Structures are given as C-alpha cells and as structure tokens.
Amino acid sequence: MAPRKEISVCCRAQVIALREVGLTYRDIAAKLHFSKTGVERIVQKYKETGALVNRSGRGKKKYTTLQEDKQIVLISKRDRRKTASQIREEFNATRSKDSAVSLTLIKDRLNESGLYGRIAAKKPLLRTVNKMKRLNWAKKHRDWTPEKWKTVLFSDESKFELFGGKRRVYVRRMKGERMKLQCLVPTVKHGGGSVMVWGCFGNEKTGDLIKIDGILRKESYHKILMKHALPSGKRLIEGKFVFQQDNDPKHKSKLCINYLRKKEEEGFFECMDWPPQSPDCNPIELLWDELDRSVRKLQPKNSEQLWSYLQTIWKSISTETLQKLIERMPKICRAVIKEKGGYFEESKI
C-alpha cells in the first residue's frame, strides 16, 4: 500500500478556515479535492493540538543512534574495500543477537553519509618519490600558457585490440536475454588480433602515426626517433620545440638518450623531464581513448582493417579537439599541485 501524501500546512489552514465559516466536511473535500476522511482528520487534530504543524518527534524512529551511525561510517572509511556485508558483520559483533542490524540498514546509513559503492579507479602506484617528482614538474610548468604548450610534441605508444577491450559496453535487454547474441560482447583469446602504434601531436596538429610490428625494442624506438619523432616536431612546430616522452625503459636506454642528447645540442629542440607514473598528465592518452571509441564504432574485422581505420581517424582528428587538450595542460598542473603530486579527479579538470 502506497504511503499517504503529506498535506501542506497551507492546505490545512484552508481546511480550518472553510470549516470555521460553516462548510461541511463533504463540501470542503469537494472544493479542495481532498478525501472527506482527510478533512475530518485535519479538523480533529487541530481541535486536539490547536496547531497546524506536525508534532516534533513524529515519524518512524531510527533503529540506531547517532553514535552508532558514526561507527558504521568509520568502519567503512578505515577500509574502503569492505563490503556492506563485512561492515554489518563487524558492527554486529559488538551488539547482542537480538539487536543485530540488517544489511539494508547498513546500506542506508552508508548512503546517507554519501558513501556509495563504486568501481575503484585503476592507476599506477605512486610512491612518495613519484609524488615529489610530479609536484616539481607541475610547479615548473604551472606558469606555461597554452601558447607555450603548443610548442610541445607529445608522444606515446598504444595498443588497439579487435576484441576484448577493457571499455565497458552497455546494452538494453529484457529478463532472460542476458545470453542473447545481440546482448553479448564477444571475446577471443589474446584479443583476436591487435595493432600497436606510436604517435605524436603538437601545435594543434597530429604528427606521424606508426604501426609497430612485434615487440618495440630500443633499436626500433631509436629509428622512430630519427625518422618520425623529431621530423614531426620540425614539421608541426615552428622554431624550437619541446619533446615529451614517458619513462619507458626503451625510451631511457643509452642508445636513445645519447641520440636525443646529441640532437638536443644542435639547438632546435629540448627534451622535457617527464615525471614517473604520470600517464594522467599526458594529453595523448585522452587522444588514444577517443581513437579507440571511434574505431570500435566501425567494427573492424581483422588487424589490417583495424590499422586502416586507425590511420584514417588519426588524420581526421580536428584542430578543436587538439586545442582542448593543449588548453587542458595548465589545469593539470594546478590539479597536481593541489593534490601535492597525487592523482587528481579527471571530471574536475
């Protein structure tokens, strides 16, 4: 049975006023579109209390005290991975069997305090030294304007799979349709084929996108630096540019570092000292996500088709998209500083 709708104080006042001028319960009910019983109840309560507002303390009493509610929240905050069932078990351990609380009550108290069950975000482990390096990097670049960030050539590698991507897929289905073909995401071993690529962008333009065959080793990356990375920087960015790469072991190999140092001495570019464990600061990561979403819509059938689609979409990435990624960089620096080198929430950037 549905609960009765609460009648406002203003409407109750109208009922009393009409009653005092001599209208019957039936007439009042018809005029205000209430039930006759509801009108009688309002008048009777007014005669008993002389007030139109509800009595204090009225309503269902809470089964737990304020202190016990705080205890439930504290148990959850001490270990964020505890389930509601585990919290209930720990909480009831301090109570008698007759006063044990239900799982529903535990969930209600957690929700009332703003603690909702959510899927944990996955991020690379940040140690204290990593946080310090991230913080120092952000402080060093916090005064850079978007125009300055346009001189940076951002680069990275990424893997794209035909199947088995980590991205969630939502479908609408009816009861009993969970295993229906249209409601499934097919998976195969090893992703059913994949394409590894290296790419770069700078000055609101995309650079080369290269397919990597097999495992990318330091010798192969050295060739990418010579034939694609530095040439892309010269082509996309006028004057001296800044080359960004992460701290992957092959990037930091003696072969590649010595080559970059030698070319850096020629004066047409400089290398950015990139902080460790910081893919969240690299705007090209968002570009990979956008590329992945776009290529999945085309549903490539094999690796060759996947590579073809990747090249086509890469070339069609708009200036506006790249501009937003560049304009995002000063905000990232501020966010990293605010979090003292820790991770920041993407939605607040």
Automatic annotation (TrEMBL):
InterPro entries: Homeodomain-like_sf, RNaseH_sf, Tc1-like_DDE_dom, Transposase_5, Transposase_Tc1-like, WH-like_DNA-bd_sf. SUPFAM superfamilies: Homeodomain-like. GO terms for molecular function: DNA binding. Residues 152-306 form the Tc1-like transposase DDE domain. Its main location: nucleus. GO terms for cellular component: nucleus. It is found in: Nucleus. It comes from the Eukaryota. Residues 69-143 form the Transposase Tc1-like domain. GO terms for biological process: DNA integration; DNA transposition. Gene3D superfamilies: Ribonuclease H-like superfamily/Ribonuclease H, Winged helix-like DNA-binding domain superfamily/Winged helix DNA-binding domain. Pfam families: DDE_3 (PF13358), HTH_Tnp_Tc3_2 (PF01498). This is Paired box protein and transposase domain containing protein. It comes from Lasius niger.
